[in-house]
Design brief:
This protein is an alpha+beta fold. It is built from 13 helices and 21 strands. The chain has 2 domains: 7-245 and 393-410, no CATH class; 249-368, no CATH class.
Length: 416
């Protein structure tokens, strides 16, 4: 049986120049719910209003999941009525270049075959929270469009990179916009370039780096509408492995046992070497095997115990922290709804972790980043890391691309 090509062109829509600052969303994970609520309140056309989650609701708002999804659909309807997006008018792929400070990476955006998750061509490495995955799956049908691409990586390929390079040096970008210090440039590729890349990726193995919940949602959407071709593919962007930068997600955790700081640290000392330090600089890890801890104005540096079990996953700091500290000591199941963990990406700043911990006296855990090679090794072994194990930066943004699914708010439009 012939398999479908992994990446295909699609007739996407691109944000118009006059709307870039109003629609393109900042990095979702780097903002607190309060910050996201403020952005949506001040700018009703922000794509954050389309993708809002339960934690973005105002305190006391008793909206159901259906209410939440309808609000997202209504926001997209408003954006479409304003004609903020313009159809490309032809099936194609897109070169997408991100530049932050001295770092530049260029990838390709296309419609990815959801079947690749089951046939071994698309490998994942993180667990997902079922409630979040379900909400995103329902989002596909209610809202009827995707603008947040699943991000993936592949082992660098000179044919793909050469094709993207040639396409981007020859013409001006269709989109050129800076948001939160990151420059986003997009080129609609000519058909021969798109075909060359699609052929090169036909049998490639690629790795999800960001978007495990969106991946689960795409699988659910495909299963729900197996007869609908547009649901058998999902919006995705692919970057080479040698161009990625990975930063950690830090953790703000409750202690399920309600202990004092000294009691928590005493429990940590049973599974790790503990040293109290004077400041955040002394606590934040600079090498693998170390974890910073913050509780109520005090700092500690932990050295994790040696690993005595096999497997790529078992040796990762993020898994050791989950197993030895979060689960065993704090009594938290990361996959449970309302688990009591708040994930704070490194770009949000160490002070943001401290601020959130100081609100209610919770425990801050500061991690060393996972590497791209470690992510790929775990995926190759078909193991799964805890949620939010890595933060790949700079991030693609919602609101640049739009792939129409022809349902919900886009039922009147042809699928792309």
């Amino acid at each position: 049986m012939t398999r479908r090509r992994l990446f295909e062109p699609f007739a996407g829509w691109l944000i118009k120049h006059d709307w870039t600052s109003r629609v393109i969303a900042g990095a979702y994970d780097s903002k607190s719910p309060e910050q996201r609520r403020r952005i949506v309140a001040e700018n009703p056309h922000s794509y954050l209003g389309v993708t809002r989650s339960r934690e973005d609701l105002e305190h006391g708002d008793a909206a159901t999941d259906e209410d939440l999804l309808q609000r997202g659909a209504d926001t997209l309807t408003s954006i479409l009525k304003a004609e903020a997006f313009e159809p490309t008018g032809r099936p194609t792929m897109y070169a997408y270049r991100l530049t932050a400070d001295e770092h530049t990476q260029i990838g390709v955006v296309g419609a990815m075959d959801v079947g690749g998750y089951s046939d071994g061509r698309i490998l994942t490495h993180e667990n997902v929270r079922p409630t979040r995955a379900k909400l995103l799956g329902d989002h596909l049908h209610w809202v009827g469009a995707t603008s947040s691409p699943v991000s993936l990586t592949y082992r660098a390929d000179p044919v793909i990179q050469g094709t993207l390079h040639d396409a981007t040096v020859a013409t001006k970008p269709d989109i050129d916009h800076v948001v939160e210090g990151v420059r986003h440039q997009v080129w609609a590729l000519e058909s021969d370039a798109a075909t060359r890349i699609a052929d090169q990726l036909a049998e490639a193995v690629i790795y999800v780096t960001d978007g495990h919940h969106r991946s689960a949602a795409a699988l659910a959407g495909a299963a729900k509408k197996p007869e609908a071709e547009q649901f058998q593919r999902t919006l995705a962007v692919l970057f080479p492995d040698d161009a990625l930068q990975v930063e950690p997600f830090h953790r703000r955790c409750v202690d399920a046992h309600g202990r004092t700081p000294d009691e928590i640290i005493a429990a940590f000392a049973e599974v790790a070497e503990v040293e109290e330090v004077d400041s955040i600089e002394g606590a934040v890890p600079h090498t693998r095997g170390h974890v910073g801890v913050y509780i109520r104005g005090r700092w500690w540096r932990l050295t994790l115990a040696p690993v005595d079990r096999p497997g790529a996953l078992a040796h990762l700091d993020v898994e050791r922290v989950r197993r030895d500290l979060i689960t065993s000591v704090l009594g938290i199941d990361e996959l449970a709804p309302n688990s009591g963990i708040d994930y704070v990406p490194s770009p949000a700043g160490l002070d943001e972790v401290v601020r959130r911990c100081d609100i209610d006296g919770n425990v801050g855990l500061f991690l060393y980043p996972t590497s791209v090679s470690e992510i790929m090794a775990v995926a190759d072994a078909h193991e799964l890391m805890p949620p939010k194990s890595s933060y790949v930066a700079p991030k693609p943004r919602s609101g640049l691309f739009l792939r129409i699914l022809g349902s919900g708010a886009t039922a009147h439009l042809d699928p792309s």
